[in-house]
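Exam prep: given the inputs below (a chain plus F0G), describe the expected output before reading on.
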Amino acid sequence: MNDNLHQLRCFGCGERISGADARPDFRCARCGDLFEVEYAGWSQRQSFDRPNPGALKWLWRERRSSSETLDQSGVWRFRELLPILDSFGNAVTLREGNTPLYPLIRTAKALGMDQLFAKHQGMNPTGSFKDTGMTAALSVAKERGFEWVACASTGNTSAAMAAYAARAGLRSLVLIPEGKIAWGKLSQAMDYGALTCQLKTDFDGCLRLLTQIVQEAPIYLLNSVNPYRLEGQKTPAFEIAEAFDWTVPDHLIVPGGNLANSSALGKGFRELHELGLVARMPRISVIQAEGANPLVRSFAKNQGTAMEPVEAHTRATAIRIGNPASWRKAARVIQDTGGWCLDVTETEIAIAKAELGAEGLGCEPASAVTLAGLKKLRADGKVAAGETVVLLLTGHTLKDADYTIDFHRGTLLKEQEAAGHEAEIDALRRNAVVMEATPAAVLAALKGSVG
Ligand code: F0G
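Solution:
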């Protein structure tokens, strides 16, 4: 570990420890809160350790045309801002990151906006944003000589962890809630050779159990309580800033589950700002599903200063989390950037997902909360027509094909959920039609569809 360059700072009590002294559950021994990676010298201007903004921007751009393995990773391309390894030769990479930023032209028009984009993190090697965090934290596990890594997951973390562990030659243990994850994700954990345990509990129960297990066995915990995960997950902020030529968009909208990703992106933009690479931070808003909305409730009740867990229910299984570990970090990002925290219904999620699909940008339901949230923010006058907004799409549409098929077959939403939205839903549904294998039958279907 490169402890000369980084240390861990407790988010709750400010205690600083070296990376090597972190407990297996990554909780502070003094107050029980989570740690953040901190780099000495960055916050003090004129320090010799402080990276030079112009030189960094040039170097990172040059690396885009490099054939070196590390340069081809959209995470390690920015390695000057995540010096967490003793040797970058230990980095385990699947060429993650460098994901596309797509303009959403039709959706922008429908919302009366000029500048709307989707940063599609589902275009990562295992189909979700988790790859950016996994390349960072799993590389630390490898450098530290661990043989086993583990995570509790709603599916995507386990898929990413299993793949990166397999690449590194490590063994991986996955704890997932039985029956409550999408099949695409479960199949990935199996494909990449993880020991997969489906537990008769929810995500929060899986994480609680794993926290106990890592105290008793030499297993490296790769959930997002591990602060090195966030170092990788902050890099899409660098990609977004770079894509806008180091001006930042006005507003970034992110889904909220365990709330690490919003925390990581906030950290990324904060560091760019502190280092003088960008002039300001974007507003960062977090959207939760109505049935899994503990942070929304916390903002409504006490401005995000205390959070009560909820029993989580949503078809967007990736964010079916009632007791998010990183809620304090996410609350600070929302407060510091002037963002909002709101929730959206199951119907709003399903419609938003189909609208994104109709623009050729499939995503999983948890990602679609961002568009559903933006629609609400626009309706409430909280986003102006001229603002530049980026929606963070977190997972690929093929992760949860059942959800999409159920929507188009008309079996996803209950009658009372669809009530009042029938016309909108009917306009979006494209069910597959079964017919005789004759030109006449296909031509008749075509005529019906055009007419
Ligand atoms: N979107 C997707 C597709 C996810 O898989 C997750 C989290 C989130 C959003 C929420 O991100 O937790 O950082 O707020 N999935 C985790 C998992 C919990 O186990 O794959 P978050």
